[in-house]
Specification:
The complex is a heterodimer of chains A (853) and B (249). Chain A has 853 residues and is an alpha+beta fold. In chain A, the strands form two sheets. A six-stranded mixed barrel of chain A has the order 2-3-8-5-7-6. Chain B contains eight helices and ten strands. Classes of the chains: A alpha+beta (853), B alpha/beta (249). At the A-B interface, α15, α24, α25 and α28 of A face α2, α3 and α4 of B.
């Protein structure tokens, strides 16, 4: 008790003098805690919203969906499901969705939209907000269309205008303000248009080969368990390629997806915390060095090593607690920004409410990081001998060897970092991967920083004096060069890698980069429309590319086992989802040679060789889908081509570059066997002129209303938009790492202030002007920033290259301007913070140099 | 108040250093503490003056005012014909850079520069390169082969000799030395003082030495004694009884 009072009392008295230093430690902790609390609290809130809005997200108790019209057997099953709900009767509403071209007669412009024909009642839960209000319930009665506001913008139309879809015209009744369960960003791929179900036929859009999604929504009477019904009907409906979803299954899936999103962002936030930890470690290291005399005095006066250690441990814990509390408060504030950043990617609106458990965990993280990273430098206090007061150790002398206690402590600290990573990642493997990756990156950064600094010292470049002096300062006693390079470098490395990957993924999609590739694609061209389309293209000066045939088909059996049987055996929603490759409708093609966007990785392509009319037809499968289906070379697949069974044998596997907007297929057949099958065509062309493209699209939609036109550059823009939103969310979290780096830098500047002030004052005494001293300091920080940036960019180029080439399989190029901008910003930040922290140099008069004698 | 008293008294040329009625007070705990009180004296070019006094007598404050490191509360200082009062901080820095050298008790070398680079600093600040001169001076102080060493690799006496080379490298008109042997043992102290006086003779540099060491003061030609901030005596030095240790061992 007495000992505790001594420790606490001394910690407080002693801590007063070290307040600025301890505040710097708290600051280093706070940034990372803020990032973690913000993302964890937001994720908690998000999952709570999903829980609360689960029924509204599905819009029903149960939903059945299929990518082809229901078979008679499926219809019977759905009817059984409806009647088995008991009384009062189960309510149903059907929705059919398909892509279609929309335009406003008398106005310019066309737009590919996602058209949904809905029956009254849908959605049963949650409400669709419209502007003007409450038009949704009157949709069927008024017979118009309710559209996304973005459609009005792109067609330069307004509510009250008439939109033409296929052969039918619809008055625009309202715009959608909020639709439960819908990710707002989806609208950028194609605005949504809702029309009453009974008006769909009038559009004439549902023809052979149209890609229509059929959904039936069920509202069950109270007391009926949707899961029980789903379990009972899932197997038989699966066999008919109809998928059932319940509220709880949907919720589970969303929880998984959103939880994963939250955890990944949480890991990025954890980086900021760990960088803050590096700041803590180096701050405490310098702090302990400065406290050696005090420690020796305390030891001389009779305090034992443990008591002295406890005094400083209490101080560090107080700093960690303060950092944790400040960070938690900051994180709660930042949480308010996240809906604005992530909102478009989420299916629910997230209201603002900080999560108490995330806040508490944040404070805990703060304490942990302070303790874990301060432990090893603090441990050195144990070994301070009272003799130190009489005999000072030689400066620059060899450091004593690490004792076993320190090694054990280091192992404990490392395991705690791994455990925290696993906790934040939510699973062991990603947690281990994360901590391993961080360790590797930090070690490489550390070695590179150390190496570069040594090279500069050994081989000083021939520079003007002020620069040389600035560079030499990187080695001054108590310098924090490596710490700062590590902390700033890591943040820069993260951001630069993000920039590199994003740039390289998008570059391949960017129009112009595509060179002579087609930029307009026409889908669903019926065989009798090919000549008309060709004439239209000619009259608009657009070259006519090959028309690629598309034959819709399904898998009837694989290696002798019926798809119906495989699908019918699935019990759970997860299991059913895993069978997408068996269930889907394949839109296959036939051609004599491979396309430029694909290459054969196994087996042989037929390359225009004739195919014998006997036996199974050879088929070339895409490698990924073949893996899903569990088929390899020589395996038999029977296809159901519009009711006709076509036996095939896998002749080759292809790797496809899907990112190139070219007609690519999971299954490709040789010319001949499918020539007579019901088919549509995809045609491609290239028109440079934007206006010309718009005029051609308009002409095509007016003459051939069922043909969908995709302007590749618009899709590219949409994808860029989506990637940009995702990237900006990650970037936002990565910025915290740079922020933590900046705090570490500020702490490092503070830690070496004594030396810097002394040196600045000395130089001024020797006759340096203020300007010269500022230039030396600026050179020092510019060198520090440049060192960090050089190491970070070097690493980022390596990581970016590896990710782009080996993970995303895209060609690699360096985006000079954004990287240059980032480098400039980091150097400017370093110089700015460094000079701001060096103001005391100018507040002191040179006379103080004499006074320090 | 301008009176050419110094000239009348000494009958010599314009003095290199002149201070008139120099006072310095500091606010402390709500009242003013007078550290220096009306100090007046002249020093001829090439002279060797010791400011002698016990701790707290104001000698370091006086040195700071004479060298333009601080501003007096009253009175004026003229250094090499230039009155310091009206000059800005940067102008005084330039004056120091061009005409003043310093030697400190704690050496004050820049730890990140080698010995030679430390010696070069005053020239570098003038935008001049002085490698050869720095090497020659290092050789002159007996450290010709240590130019590439960092301060941490040198002993205290060696560090002070580097500081001495730095103080003379730009041929200053006046050298201010603040207890230059305070941190050195007797042998090293003697070497440093021997070098200082030799260089004073060779280069004609005026020396102003602050010390509380009577014996050291005896090596100068003139001693001004301070006590409680006031000038108590100004007289020719009494040479020490013992012979100086050879300048270089």
């Amino acid at each position: 008790m007495k000992a505790a009072r001594f420790v606490l009392g001394l910690a407080m008295r002693e801590g007063r003098a070290s307040a600025p230093r301890l505040a710097a430690l708290a600051g280093a902790v706070a940034v990372g805690v803020a990032a973690l609390v913000a993302i964890n609290s937001f994720t908690d809130r998000l999952l709570a919203e999903v829980r609360q809005q689960a029924r509204a997200l599905l819009g029903a108790d149960l939903a059945a969906s299929s990518n082809a019209s229901y078979s008679p057997r499926a219809e019977t099953l759905l009817e059984d499901l409806r009647s088995s709900g008991g009384r009062p009767a189960v309510e149903t509403a059907r929705v059919q969705s398909l892509a279609a071209m929309a335009y406003v007669p008398g106005r310019g412009g066309t737009r590919l939209v996602q058209l949904s024909a809905v029956e009254p009642g849908y959605p049963f839960f949650g409400s669709v907000e419209t502007e003007p209000a409450s038009m949704w319930t009157r949709l069927g009665h008024l017979g118009g269309a309710i559209v996304d506001a973005s459609l009005l913008v792109s067609l330069q139309a307004k509510v009250g205008d008439t939109v033409k879809l296929g052969e039918a015209r619809f008055p625009i009744l309202a715009t959608v303000v909020n639709m439960p369960g819908d990710v707002a960003l989806r609208a950028t791929l194609g605005p949504r248009v809702f029309v009453p179900a009974d008006r769909l036929e009038a559009t004439g859009l549902v023809v052979a080969g149209s890609r229509v999604r059929y959904e039936t929504f069920f509202r069950l009477p109270p007391g009926v368990d949707p899961q029980r019904l789903a379990d009972r009907f899932r197997g038989p409906l699966q066999a008919e390629r109809v998928t059932l979803r319940t509220v709880s299954e949907d919720q589970r899936r969303l929880n998984e997806t959103l939880g994963r999103l939250g955890r990944y962002l949480g890991l990025v936030a954890l980086l900021a915390l760990l960088l803050g930890g590096i700041g803590v470690a180096s701050g405490v290291h310098v702090f302990v060095k400065r406290k050696m005399e005090t420690v020796a005095v305390l030891r001389c006066l009779g305090a034992d090593a443990r008591q002295v250690l406890a005094v400083y441990l209490v101080q560090v814990m107080a700093a960690g607690l303060l950092g944790g509390v400040l960070g938690a408060a900051g994180g709660a504030a930042i949480q308010g920004l996240l809906p604005w950043l992530l909102g478009d990617l989420l299916p629910v609106r997230v209201s603002y409410a900080p999560s108490p458990s995330a806040l508490a965990a944040g404070v805990g993280f703060g304490l942990w990081v302070a303790l874990a990273f301060a432990a090893i430098p603090l441990f050195a206090i144990r070994r301070v001998a009272p003799l130190r007061l009489l005999r000072r150790p030689v400066e620059g002398g060899r450091a004593p060897r690490r004792d076993p206690g320190t090694l054990v402590l280091a192992a404990l600290v490392a395991s705690s970092i791994v455990l925290v990573s696993i906790f934040e990642a939510g699973a062991v493997r990603p947690g281990l991967g994360f901590s391993g990756g961080i360790a590797t990156a930090l070690v490489v950064l550390w070695l590179a920083a150390l190496g570069l600094a040594r090279v500069l010292r050994r081989f000083p470049p021939r520079l003007p004096y002020l620069w040389r002096q600035g560079l030499a300062n990187l080695h001054r006693p108590a310098n924090q060069t490596v710490t700062v390079v590590l902390a700033l470098g890591f943040g820069t490395f993260l951001l630069a890698t993000l920039i590199l990957v994003q740039h390289n993924l998008l570059r391949d999609l960017r129009p112009g980069a595509a060179g002579e590739r087609p930029n307009l694609v026409f889908f669903d061209v019926q065989p009798d429309q090919r000549d008309a389309l060709a004439a239209l293209l000619r009259s608009h000066g657009a070259p006519l590319g090959d028309a690629v045939p598309v034959v819709p088909m399904r898998i009837a059996s694989i290696k002798g086992r019926a798809a119906r049987e495989i699908l019918g055996a699935s019990r759970s929603a997860e299991e059913a989802r895993g069978l997408w490759a068996f269930r889907r409708e394949y839109r296959s093609s036939y051609r004599g040679r491979t396309a430029p966007s694909e290459r054969v990785v196994e087996g042989r392509f037929w390359n225009d060789e004739g195919v014998s009319g006997e036996g199974p037809v050879p088929v070339s499968m895409e490698r990924g889908v073949a893996r899903e289906l569990g088929v390899g070379l020589g395996d038999a697949i029977e296809w159901d081509v519009q009711g006709v069974t076509v036996p095939s044998r896998v002749a080759s596997l292809r790797e496809v570059e899907w990112a190139r907007f070219e007609p690519n297929f999971f299954a490709v057949f040789p010319d001949g066997p499918l020539d007579a099958a019901p088919q549509t065509f995809v045609s491609l062309t290239r028109l440079e002129d934007v206006g010309g493209r718009a005029r051609l699209q308009r002409a095509v939609v007016e003459a051939l209303p069922n043909v969908s036109t995709v302007d590749v550059s618009e899709v590219q823009r949409s994808i860029e938009g989506i990637l940009d939103r995702v990237a900006s969310a990650i970037r936002f979290m990565a910025l915290f790492s740079l922020g933590a780096g900046a705090v570490v830098l500020a702490g490092a500047v503070a830690a070496s202030r004594l030396e810097r002030v002394r040196e600045g004052v000395l130089l001024r005494t020797l006759g340096a002007t203020r300007r010269q001293v500022v230039r030396i300091l600026a050179a020092e920080y510019a060198a520090l920033g440049l060192l960090a940036v050089t190491v970070a960019l070097g690493l980022a180029v390596g990581a970016g290259f590896a990710l782009t080439r080996f993970v995303f399989d895209a060609p690699f190029a360096l985006p000079w301007s954004p990287l240059g901008g980032l480098a400039g910003a980091v150097v400017a930040l370093t110089v700015g913070l460094g000079l701001a922290g060096s103001r005391p140099v100018f507040r002191r008069t040179p006379i103080e140099l004499l006074r320090t004698e | 108040m301008m009176r050419e008293r110094g000239d009348e008294r000494t009958g010599r040329l314009e003095p290199i250093l002149r201070c008139e009625s120099l006072s310095k007070t500091y606010p402390s705990g709500g009242r003013e503490i007078t550290v220096l009180d009306g100090i007046t004296f002249d020093l001829e070019a090439g002279g060797f003056l010791a400011l002698l006094g016990p701790s707290g007598s104001g000698k370091t404050t006086l040195l700071g005012l004479l060298a333009g490191l601080d501003q007096p509360t009253a009175g004026r200082v003229v250094l090499d014909g230039q009155e310091l009062g009206p000059l800005s901080e940067d102008e005084r820095a330039r004056l120091r850079r061009d005409r003043v050298g310093f030697v400190f008790q704690s050496f004050h070398l820049i730890p990140t520069l080698t010995a030679r680079e430390n010696v070069e600093v005053p020239l570098e600040l003038r935008g001049e390169s002085g490698r050869e001169r720095a090497e020659a001076l290092l050789a002159r102080v007996g450290l010709g082969d240590r130019g590439h060493h960092y301060p941490a690799q040198l002993s205290g006496g060696e560090q002070q000799r580097v500081a001495l080379a730095r103080a003379f490298v730009h041929r200053p008109r006046v050298l201010f030395a603040d207890e230059p042997t305070g941190n050195l043992d007797a042998a090293n102290g003697a070497i440093v003082i021997g070098l200082m006086t030799e260089l004073n003779r060779e280069l004609g540099t005026t020396l102003v030495l602050v010390t509380h060491d009577q014996e050291l003061a005896g090596r100068s030609r003139r001693v001004i004694r301070l006590s409680h901030g006031a000038l108590v005596s100004d007289a020719a030095a009494v040479p020490p009884k013992t012979a100086p240790v050879a300048a270089l061992s």
